[in-house]
């Protein structure tokens, strides 16, 4: 397993729609395990494959950040099949470091996908878990949470990372 580099806003890979996974093979399992290691190391509570530059529909969500194996969800081809209510809360993203902004999300969602054995799974989540699923599945469609903010806020954030992105590449 390996910690992979997390791409930062401004990288074109973050705005591309990810492809469905045709088969949960060794490569996907390796990707998913690396993603788990990467999100725990960050540390963060969720990561989508496009954030490590892979255009495949794979997400990991772990609200416990590695403390509780029962809270680790790895989903291949995840889809939101039901949603209910609304909650507005602060949200952040490993690809948009140090920025936290209020975003409206469904309060409760039901997500369907495949596990790493290729078996269908269905998970219900509410509050922060629902938010994390929505956020990560948005990544698979090339959507960052800043797209949910006002045009002005979004422009300021993009400007900030245009500068810091150039600095990071030199470092
Ligand atoms: Zn994110």
Any overview of this molecule?
With 171 residues, the protein is of the alpha+beta class. 29% of the residues lie in helices and 30% in strands. It contains three helices and seven strands. The strands form two sheets. The chain has a five-stranded antiparallel beta sheet with strand order 1-2-3-6-7. The chain has a two-stranded antiparallel sheet with strand order 4-5. The longest helix is centred in the last third of the chain and has 20 residues, at 151-170. The mean pLDDT is 95. The site of zinc ion has 5 residues, from helix 2. Zinc ion (ZN) binds at residues 93-95, 135, 139.
**Distance between the first and last residues' Cα:** 25 Å
What is the N-to-C succession of helices and strands?
Answer: HEEEEEEEHH
User: Biggest sheet, strands in spatial order?
Assistant: 1-2-3-6-7
**Structural class given helices, strands, pairing?**
alpha+beta
The DSSP helix count reads 3
Radius of gyration: 15 Å
What are the bound molecules? zinc ion
Low-confidence stretches: none
Query: What is the molecular shape?
Result: globular
Estimate percent helicity.
Answer: 25-40%
- Major sheet description: 5 strands, antiparallel
Q: Care to count the β-strands?
A: 7
Q: Provide the β-strand percentage band.
A: 25-35%
- What's the mean pLDDT score? 95
Give a short summary of the structure.
The chain is an alpha+beta fold.
Describe how the helices and strands are arranged:
Blueprint (H helix, E strand, L loop, with lengths): L25 H16 L4 E3 L9 E5 L9 E13 L2 E7 L2 E10 L2 E7 L5 E7 L1 H13 L10 H20 L1
Antiparallel strand pairs: 1-2, 2-3, 3-6, 4-5, 6-7
This protein binds zinc ion (ZN).
């Amino acid at each position: 397993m390996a910690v992979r580099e997390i791409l930062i806003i401004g990288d074109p890979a973050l705005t591309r729609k990810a492809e469905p996974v045709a088969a949960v093979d060794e490569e996907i399992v390796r990707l998913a395990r690396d993603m788990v290691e990467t999100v725990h190391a960050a540390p963060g509570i969720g990561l989508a494959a496009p954030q490590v530059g892979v255009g495949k529909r794979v997400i990991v969500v772990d609200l416990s950040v590695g403390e509780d194996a029962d809270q680790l969800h790895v989903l291949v081809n995840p889809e939101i099949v039901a949603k209910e209510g609304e909650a507005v809360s602060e949200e952040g993203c490993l690809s948009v470091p140090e920025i936290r902004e209020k975003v409206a999300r469904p309060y409760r969602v039901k997500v369907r996908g495949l596990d790493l054995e290729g078996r269908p799974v269905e998970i219900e989540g509410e509050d922060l878990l629902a938010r994390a699923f929505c956020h990560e599945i948005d990544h698979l469609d090339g959507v960052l949470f800043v797209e949910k903010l006002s045009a002005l806020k979004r422009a300021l954030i993009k400007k900030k990372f245009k500068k810091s992105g150039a600095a990071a590449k030199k470092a």
